[in-house]
Design goal:
This is UTP--glucose-1-phosphate uridylyltransferase. Pfam families: NTP_transferase (PF00483). It comes from Roseinatronobacter domitianus. GO terms for molecular function: UTP:glucose-1-phosphate uridylyltransferase activity. This protein is of the alpha/beta class. It folds into two domains: 6-258, Alpha-Beta Complex (Spore Coat Polysaccharide Biosynthesis Protein SpsA, Chain A), CATH 3.90.550; 259-294, no CATH class. Helices cover 35% and strands 24% of the residues. A nine-stranded mixed beta sheet has the order 5-4-1-6-11-8-12-10-9, with helices on both faces. Helix 5 (111-117) crosses helix 8. The radius of gyration is 20 Å and the shape is globular. Bound molecules: uridine 5'-triphosphate.
């Protein structure tokens, strides 16, 4: 069984919740202070041993490509100004030994369709999928945990978190089977956005997955589901019903950066975790709270 070295980043969605910011720019380039959310996902993948980054891009293709491409002119300018630290930081956005491939999703026909567009670049290999708008923060991140789970038992694995039971109608919810001694949960199905009284659990699947190439065959056979889109969740559900899917608990904290409030929360928490800003930012927050109390 071979090690997972490929990661797929679907970045071709419309990002309508962030208009007008996403009119000319993909939402995956929205920054948390100074780093685009897709770069956090790339760093998480590289830390898990991924060496081939496959971006599924859409109409705003250029900006994501430019971000991960070398910019020799900028590097030379920074060097000329003696800003070697900044030059090294820009140069190492994609570390040595890691390569990027860009494939195109001609139309945003759904996440399942975006993953299918990566099939020629993935080939006959297991791979991880990371949705950049799910930002993960913590000492252990889910991609590493997923790769490890796959190494123990090669199969499709989802990263899941418990959600408030009253919120099940917002998420893809697991129908869980038994949990083994390693914490691997067998998955019997996944139900999109069930009402509270119909939810089989409060375990929700978020934007990190390991897939075997079998997912492509299932996606090819799918008809458009909710919203006329090819839904990744429908393909996972089919595999789960055939007993081919497991899940592990996300070891980190997740921020939904596809949503404005989730994005704002991520910025606040990242700023509070940053030694450079923490104290000043706390003072600012205290000051604002005091002002609103009057
Ligand atoms: P979302 O459904 O959250 O993204 O997709 P969206 O459609 O861009 O956002 P809104 O709802 O209009 O604001 C989750 C991920 O899947 C990608 C998105 O780029 C995002 O990373 N995606 C979605 C695609 O690559 N292609 C698609 O057709 C749909």
């Amino acid at each position: 069984m071979s090690k997972i070295t490929k990661a797929v980043f679907p970045v071709a969605g419309s990002g309508t919740r962030f208009l007008p910011a996403t009119k000319a720019m993909p939402k995956e380039l929205l920054p948390i202070i100074d780093k685009p959310i897709v770069q956090y996902a790339v760093e998480e993948a590289v830390a898990a041993g991924i060496t081939e980054l496959i971006f599924v891009t859409g109409r705003n293709k250029r900006a994501v490509g430019d971000h991960f491409d070398a910019n020799l002119e900028l590097e030379a300018q920074l060097m000329a100004k003696g800003k070697t630290e900044l030059r090294d930081m820009v140069r190492n956005i994609v570390p040595e030994g890691v390569s990027c491939i860009f494939v195109r999703q001609p139309e945003p026909l759904g996440l399942g369709h975006a993953v299918l567009c990566a099939a020629p670049a993935v080939g006959d290999n297991a791979f991880v999928v990371l949705l950049a708008d799910d930002l993960m923060q913590g000492t252990e991140l889910p991609t590493e945990a997923l790769v490890r789970a796959y190494a123990k038992k090669p199969q499709t694995v989802l990263s899941v978190s418990e959600v408030d039971p009253k919120d099940t109608s917002k998420y893809g919810i697991l129908k869980p089977g038994a949990t083994d001694s390693d914490g691997l949960i067998s998955v019997e199905g996944i139900i999109e956005k069930p009402a509270v009284d119909k939810a089989p659990s409060n375990l929700a699947s978020f934007g990190r997955y390991v897939f075997t190439p079998e997912i492509f065959d299932v996606l090819r056979g799918l008809k458009p589901g909710a919203g006329g889109e090819i839904q990744l969740a429908d393909a996972i559900d089919q595999l789960a019903q055939a007993g081919k899917v497991a899940a592990i608990t996300n070891p980190s904290r997740r921020y939904d950066c596809g949503d404005k409030f989730g994005y704002l929360t991520a910025i606040v928490d990242v700023a509070l975790a940053d030694a450079e800003y923490r104290d000043r930012f706390l003072d600012l927050l205290r000051d604002r709270i005091a002002q609103t109390a009057h």
